[in-house]
Amino acid sequence: MKKKRSSLAAAVLAFCASPAAAAAAAAADPGGGVNRYKEIGVAFSAALTMSVCVLGAAYAVARIGAAAMGAATEKPELLMRSLMFVALAEGLAVLGFVIAMLMVGKM
Questions:
Q1: CATH T-level fold of 2-105
Q2: If we measure between CA atoms, which residue out of 91, 44, 37 comes closest to residue 64?
Q3: pLDDT in tens, 28-65
Q4: CA dihedral for 11, 16, 22, 28, sign (positive or negative)
Q5: What contacts 24+ positions apart, CB below 8 Å, involve 35-38?
C-alpha cells in the first residue's frame, strides 16, 4: 500500500511537471504501460475534483458568511438560521473530498 501511495504522488507530480515527464515515468515501469497512464489520469481527475470543490466552497462560504454576519448585526435572531447556509456551503468541500477518495480507491 505504501508503494502505491508513493507511486500515486510521483505520478501526480510527474503529470503536473510536464507531459514528457509523465511519459518518461510510464516508460520507466516495464509492466505498467497503459495501466500507468490510467492511474495518472485518475490521480489528476481526483486532484481536479478536489480543487474545484474546495474553491467553490470557499467562494460560497465567503459570500454567505459575510451576508450572515451582516444580517446578524441587524437582527441577532437570524444568526443560527443563516449559519445553516454556511454549513451547507462547507458541505461542498466534504463532498469533493469523498468523491476524490472514491476515485483514488478505484485505482
A1: F1FO ATP Synthase (1.20.20)
A2: 91
A3: 555 555 678 888 888 899 899 999 999 999 999 999 99
A4: negative
A5: 36/11, 38/107
